[in-house]
Each structure stands twice: as structure tokens, then as C-alpha cells.
Queue: 2 jobs
Job 1
Amino acid sequence: MPFLRKIASLEPVSRLRYRFEVLCRMEGVHERECPLCGHRGMFRAHGLPPRFDACCPACGSLERHRLLGCYLLGQADSLLAGRRVLHFAPEPCIARTLRNAPLAAYVTADLHEPAVDERLNIEKIDKPPNSFDLVLCSHVLEHVDDRQALSEVHRILSPGGTAILMVPIVEAWTRTYEDEGIRTHRERELHFNQRDHLRFYGRDFRIRVKETGFEALSEFTAYGDLAARYGLTRGETVFTARKPGSPPSA
Ligand SMILES: [Zn+2]
């Protein structure tokens, strides 16, 4: 573990100082703001090794949740008002925000998690075409047959409807890294950073989305002051894919 190795490599006094500095930062380094619950103040560290200022102590939001929150709330009138929304693998902090939004319908769905409105398989969604105007799908596609899932999301959307997508992606990679030979939990954790992940996306993710029939892929990326203010991961992106056709009127 590099974190422990780094500590072990230090002189005893430096080692103590390093540990002390890490511990001091666990409860927050800079004051941040949560767009989802409005909390302002220190955010807690999260993850191993710890990412400082990662977790909102009031609502539990992490960096990617707050990025999605900034995007959704920043254009709530055009994106959300009057829309029928389907939310796969709903994050509680996002779901709470959306339940208070002026939507025509809001349905949470998951294949395994019991605390959702409907048990749906994103690879074979048990809904007819034109069932929803907006589908939220954050950190789901790397777990499943993504081409099949994207085709299904496209099928159930209304003409002009949108899919909001977030995935683990390495922008320096031209090609997505996946290998069907990597099967065990331990191997997948080594190669894809989590035991149930099937791939790490490269920047060809955009091509993969468009190949399933979507057009006009737009991107909202954590940058500059926004990242500093809300404690976002710089460069992380929300992708919005639009299905061809006339958008539904709000
Ligand atoms: Zn919060």
C-alpha cells in the first residue's frame, strides 16, 4: 500500500508529522459548499487513500454527486420542469433533490437495491417506448453490457429526450479498456478499480454513446472556481445525450 510505504520511508519524526497532517485533514481542509443540501463548511475525507474535502457531512454527497447536482440545478427549468424522469441506481442525495423538483413523474429503479420504486434491469427495461423524457444513469454503465443498456435507454426515451450519463473515464486514453478474460473480483479490482466493474472508459465513450442512436452529446465538466467552491474532482464530466426528435414540451 503506497500510503503506508510512504509513511514507512520517512524518518521517525517526519513519519509522525506526516501522520499528524493526514489526520488533521480528515475533517476538512477548506470550507466547501454543497449544491444539493446547501451545507457550507468543512467536508469529511472519504476513500482509501483518503480524498480530502470529499464528503458533505450533512447529506453524504461525494464529488460526483455534487457535480451532477450543479448541472441539474443549474438548468432545472429546461432540463427538469415537467419531465418524466427515470433514475437508475439512485443516489440518496440526488433523489432527495429530484423529489422536490417540479417533475411530471419521478421513478427510481435498480435491479438489486430494494429501496427503489421499481425493480428494472437496464439491459432489458420493462417499459414501452416513449415512457420517459429524461433518464439519469450515473456510474452504472461500467457494471453492465453498456451497448445493450444504452440501446434500452434510447428506446424508452421520448423523441428529443435526454440521457444524463456519468462513467469512470480516463480522458488520456483513446480506447476503452475492457477484457472479457478479466473475470474474478480480485482481477477486476486490479484492472478496473472495483470488483464489479467491467471496464474503464477512454474518450471513445462518446462514440459508443452515439453508436446507439443518440445525437448531440454535450458535456459539463468540473472546472476552475466551480470545482474549488463545491469540492469537485477537476475534469470529471457529466455527459448529456439527446435522442433525435422534437423535445417534449414542458
Ligand atoms: Zn450536502
Job 2
Amino acid sequence: MVNAAPAGTPSSVLGPFHIEGAPELPNGGDLWRGQVGEPLVVSGRVVDQKGAPAAGTVLVLWQNAGNGLYAQQDPSQAPTNYHARLTVADDGTFSFTTVRPVSYKVPDDGPAGDMLRVLGRDAWRPAHLHMIVQAPGHAPLITEFFPEDDEHLDGDAVFGVRAGLVLPFSKVTDRTALPANLVARDTLPMPVCAARLDLTLPPG
Ligand SMILES: [Fe+2]
């Protein structure tokens, strides 16, 4: 937090589950593909400090699956399940379908768990979607986003929550209200959970 940029979307923790070389996901692509859990449509726009679209920005995405586990923790998942790299459109917009992330406990069977118990804290992390925003001319922005209705927002074991990273998750009942480029637009079960995610780059 001491080293965070003075403006733009706040940064947050990287965590242990980021991988290099995640597969490319087309803008509008589908990471969910009918897997266990509730589908989530994320759409938004990336702009710079002047509000101009940040063409060429790459979003590196990773999160846990609907069973609460990251691919690296779960042999039943493909190694890059829910890991992706998405390049935003020239107007800065992007969309994708994923699974609604699930709150989970950090491992608490070792000294970290002992420390949390001594401090009277719990081991839960609120559900979150990890992201690295890689924009030309900018340092990478490492951050994560949380649904506003998560019961663990005020007790995050790793202190990752910032007010500017908490998003309303809504229910969309009208398929035609979903982004036009969404690959799963015509096949998603309705109503579907959706989140709007607008990003402002830090100063270059
Ligand atoms: Fe995480």
C-alpha cells in the first residue's frame, strides 16, 4: 500500500497462484464453458488518466474454480483452467465469461494459522478475481476485484480489500443486454450474474 500509485485503480496482493504463459482468450471469450459453479459475465473498459481508451492493454486473469480451488491445487482441473490473457479492443472495452469466484481459506494448518488464531483473525479470503493490467507505457498494475455481497470483505486474512476494488454483482435477465461480442451470449443460462469492471491506469 505504501508503494501504490497515487491515482488510478488501486493495486492489491499478487498471491501465490499467478502463472506465466497463460493461454490467450479472445475478447468476449468464455472461461466457464459450463463447468461447476455460477457463470459470471464481466465487462468493462480500460482508460488512462485522461480518460482515453488504453488500446493494446493486456489483462492477465486468474481465479479459483467453482469448487473453491485454483487449478494448481486441484488435479481434476487442467493446469491453466481459469488462467488467461485477454487483449482489450482499440476502444479499451473488454468482456469475458467466467465462473463466479468463491471465498476460500488460506492454509491454516501451520504457523500462519497459529498466528491468525493468536491475533483473533480468521483464515478466510473473500471471493476475488485476480488481474494484472499490462498497458503500454505503464508499470504492470497487480490487483484483484471482490463482489460487494461477500461476507468476508471486512476480515480478509491477507488485507487485500480496497474500497475501489469492490464491485456490485447484478443479475441480468435480458440476454440482449449482454455484450454483443460475448461468445457465450446465446447459450448462457438466464438470468446470469454480471459485473461491470472499469479500470483506470495509474500515471504512466
Ligand atoms: Fe486468490
